[in-house]
Every structure is written in structure tokens, then in C-alpha cells.
């Protein structure tokens, strides 16, 4: 099971949440100030592109056309990244092109963290060698940064190395981006099918402060038609896990039913929102909490009391001291729902999805898709996302648009 929400920050965010649950300070001035440089930047880039085109025509031997193709291609648009669903919706990864000429790495897109990293060709550990390693010497657009970087996730995995920058491209959207080149990674990554992570969180939780995220850079460059990334993560149970995608810069209304409910982000770091209630078959469990929508975490992880209430309604479930909450695997045929209310609307997680993985001990028990242990900051991971389409909207007042997934 993967938990990508940063472990050290989970504590920091909790502490902050207690002191000030929602940052309600009005920010009219900063909004205003923000829009001016954006407009100016746009003009600057536009002129820059025109200048490069002129220079390239006059001095073809400089190879400018090739080196700056990422600028030329950056008219506001959208990009599809097809996903591979690993195991029983354990994680979802997609191709990302880095450098010139492009080297393709497989990355796990993660709203629970903000760094983009993958192994460096200089890393010779077993874990690194099991993956595609990026060779910066073979990229004409690579720039050294030199700063060290290190990250630790909630499942105790970690990685570290040095920062650099290069052209990063997803679904045809290209920007110059600071990347972490891992020279060390923990053993958990040795067996993972993806090469690294692609953080979609806010820059406030970048492991090196001041680094801008891919979304920051793509939005500032005017590369996205809309400042959003939309996650469609279907499940093995519902459709074989086929056709998943991240859509940068647009929303695909064929991927959900009804209309999107936009839930305001309460704190920029993770994609954090207020969960107004949890319910079982529409019956309130009387709990409310801050929570994060985290594409990089496999399960839904709530507070202990809620986990207990939910499983108390599923006969045959139990809290195993070594494994956590178990449910009878027969709930696969249940029609009941757990739901989480946000922005005044309840979003379902079918109890059938709680039969996450057979314990394989002949007991007929399954490891539950909802676990406890996250009092104060619930994590709505893939067990939630495979039932609900989510649009991560990074406007000046960010929000998450949510609607039931269309299978
Ligand atoms: C990902 O990249 C690899 C290597 O370039 C390629 O073989 C594969 O078809 C790509 N997969 C998708 C889904 O684009
Ligand atoms: C659970 O949700 C599904 C989808 O919205 C619905 O069809 C079903 O009737 C719900 N089950 C119950 C017991 O309310």
C-alpha cells in the first residue's frame, strides 16, 4: 500500500490546522498583483518566441529551433497522459518525457506531494538500476542546479539526490522544470513499476523551498488552456482499470456523471478540503474533518472513530491488531455505500471497494479499503478517486471539482 502524503509535513500541517483551520485572510491585493506579472510574462514569452524564431532562421547552425521547441509548442492547450493501473489499483503511472532528445520515465502522478524526481544514471544501487535512469549528460537542455534534495513519504519510503532543470513534457505540455535526480532511494522503490514521482501538490510542500511545481510553471507560461489537472482513475473492479488518464489543462465531461461540485481548498500544500460528514447508506456518522485528496495514496484513511463506525455497520468485519481493519471478501457483492460530504454534496465509495485485497489465509477476509489512524487529516486516496472524477483547479482561490466517475 502506498501513502505518498509527506510524513514530516503531515505533522506540520496538523499543527497548523489546529491553530487556524482555514486561512480566510482576504487577499485582494495579492490577487491583483498576481495578474499583472502574468500578463507581462505572456508578452515577454511571446516576444521571446518570435525572437528565437528569427534567430533560428538566420543562424541554423546554432540548433535553436530544436533547443527551444518547448517554447514554440506552448500555445495554451491541453494534454492527455494515458495511465497504467498497477495491481489492484495500487497506483497509476504514466509516461513523462524529459530532456532533449526526450528520455521517457514512468512516473506516479501525486497530489500528495510536489517534487518531480526519478533516478539519475549516476545512481548504481539495485533500486535505481531496476528503473529507467535519466542521463543528464545526454540532454542538450539540461542545466545543473547543484542543490541537494531529499524527501520522505508516509509509507516510510524516501529518496534523495541533487536538483537540476530540464524540459519536462506531459501529454505534449512542455515547460522548463526543476527536477530531483535521485542518487539514493529506499528499497521500497526497488520493486515499484514506476521510476519516480510527479508531484501535483502546491509549491509550499516542495522539499526545497522556492522551487516551483510543474503546474506553477505551466500556468505561468500560458501553456494550459485552463489552470487544472483532471484525474480519471478507473478501477479494476469496475472496468479492468482500463483507460485511466490525467488531463492537463482541461476537463473531460464524458468522464463523470452530473455536474462538478467545486470544493474550496482550505490550505495550500496538499489539496486539502473540509470533509463535512461521513455517512453509511446516507446515515450520518457525525464526524467532520479536514482531509486531503491524494492520488498517490492507495486507500482511504480516516480517523479511528470513523473507521470503527463504518466497519461496525459491516457484519463480519474486525480490527486485526497486526493488519488493521478487515472485511469479509463477500462485501464485493454489497450495494451499500460509504459517503463523504464536501461542498454540501455526498460522494460515494461503494462498500464493494472495501474488499481491497484478499488476506490469502483462507479466512475469507479482505484487507479493507478504508483504514483508521489519520485523526485530524483524513486521506481520500485512490479508493475514493476510482469512484469520483477530480479536477484539481489551481486558480488564485484553488478548489477541487468532484463528480461521480462515469464508467
Ligand atoms: C510509454 O513510453 C514507452 C517508451 O517510450 C512506450 O513504449 C509506451 O508505448 C508509452 N506508453 C504510453 C501509454 O504512451
Ligand atoms: C449506492 O450508490 C449507488 C450509486 O450512486 C446507488 O445506485 C445505490 O442505490 C446506493 N446504495 C444504497 C444502498 O443506497
Could you characterize what this model shows?
With about 400 residues, the chain is of the alpha+beta class. It has two domains: about 75-250, Acid Proteases (Cathepsin D, subunit A, domain 1, Beta Barrel), CATH 2.40.70.10; about 255-405, Cathepsin D, subunit A, domain 1 (Beta Barrel). Helix content is about 20%, strand content about 35%. The chain has helices at about 5-20, 30-60, 65, 70, 125-130, 215-220, 235-240, 305-310, 380-385, and strands spanning about 80, 85, 90-100, 105-110, 115-120, 145-150, 160-170, 175-185, 195-200, 230, 245-250, 260-265, 265-270, 270-275, 275-280, 285, 290-295, 300, 320, 325-330, 335-340, 345-350, 355-360, 365-370, 370, 375-380, 390-395, 400-405. The strands form five sheets. The chain has a six-stranded antiparallel β-sheet with strand order 1-11-10-27-28-12, with no helix packed on it. The chain has a six-stranded mixed barrel with strand order 3-4-9-5-8-7. Strand 7 and strand 8 form a beta hairpin. The longest helix has about 30 residues, at about 30-60. The chain is globular, with a radius of gyration of 22 Å. Belongs to the peptidase A1 family. Its EC number is 3.4.23.21. InterPro entries: Aspartic_peptidase_A1, Aspartic_peptidase_AS, PEPTIDASE_A1, Peptidase_aspartic_dom_sf.
Amino acid at each position: 500500500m502506498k501513502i505518498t502524503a509527506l510524513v514530516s509535513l503531515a505533522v506540520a500541517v496538523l499543527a497548523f490546522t489546529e491553530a487556524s483551520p482555514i486561512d480566510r485572510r482576504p487577499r485582494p491585493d495579492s490577487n491583483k498583483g498576481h495578474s499583472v506579472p502574468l500578463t507581462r510574462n505572456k508578452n515577454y514569452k511571446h516576444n521571446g518566441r518570435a525572437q528565437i524564431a528569427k534567430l533560428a532562421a538566420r543562424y541554423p547552425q546554432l540548433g535553436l529551433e530544436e533547443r527551444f521547441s518547448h517554447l514554440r509548442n506552448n500555445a495554451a492547450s491541453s494534454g492527455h497522459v494515458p495511465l497504467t493501473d498497477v495491481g489492484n489499483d495500487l497506483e497509476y503511472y504514466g509516461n513523462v518525457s524529459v530532456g532533449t532528445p526526450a528520455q521517457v520515465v514512468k512516473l506516479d502522478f501525486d497530489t500528495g506531494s510536489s517534487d518531480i524526481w526519478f533516478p539519475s544514471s549516476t545512481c548504481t544501487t539495485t533500486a535505481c538500476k531496476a528503473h529507467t535512469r535519466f542521463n543528464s549528460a545526454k540532454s542538450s537542455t539540461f542545466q545543473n542546479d547543484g542543490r541537494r534534495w531529499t524527501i520522505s513519504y508516509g509509507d516510510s519510503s524516501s529518496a534523495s539526490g541533487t536538483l537540476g532543470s530540464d524540459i519536462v513534457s506531459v501529454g505534449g505540455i512542455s515547460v522548463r522544470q526543476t527536477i530531483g535526480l535521485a542518487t539514493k532511494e529506499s528499497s521500497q522503490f526497488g520493486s515499484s513499476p514506476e521510476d519516480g514521482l510527479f508531484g501535483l501538490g502546491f509549491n509550499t510542500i516542495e522539499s526545497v523551498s522556492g522551487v516551483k511545481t510543474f503546474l506553477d510553471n505551466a500556468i505561468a507560461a500560458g501553456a494550459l488552456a485552463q489552470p487544472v489537472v483532471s484525474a480519471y482513475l478507473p478501477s479494476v473492479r469496475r472496468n479492468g482499470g482500463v483507460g485511466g488518464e490525467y488531463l492537463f489543462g482541461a476537463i473531460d465531461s464524458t468522464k463523470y456523471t452530473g455536474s462538478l461540485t467545486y470544493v474550496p481548498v482550505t490550505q495550500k500544500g496538499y489539496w486539502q478540503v473540509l470533509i463535512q460528514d461521513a455517512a453509511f447508506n446516507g446515515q450520518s456518522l457525525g464526524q467532520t474533518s479536514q482531509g486531503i485528496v491524494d492520488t498517490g495514496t492507495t486507500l482511504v484513511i480516516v480517523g479511528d472513530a470513523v473507521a470503527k463506525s463504518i466497519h461496525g455497520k459491516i457484519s463480519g468485519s474486525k480490527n486485526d491488531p497486526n493488519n488493521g481493519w478487515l472485511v469479509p471478501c463477500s462485501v464485493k457483492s454489497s450495494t451499500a455505500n460509504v459517503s463523504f460530504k464536501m461542498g454540501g454534496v455526498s460522494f460515494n465509495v461503494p462498500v464493494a471497494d472495501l474488499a481491497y485485497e484478499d488476506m490469502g489465509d483462507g479466512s475469507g477476509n479482505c484487507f479493507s479499503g478504508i483504514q483508521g489512524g489519520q485523526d485530524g487529516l483524513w486521506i481520500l486516496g485512490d479508493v475514493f478517486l476510482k469512484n469520483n472524477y477530480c479536477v484539481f483547479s489551481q486558480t488564485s482561490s484553488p478548489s477541487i471539482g468532484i463528480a461521480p466517475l462515469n464508467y
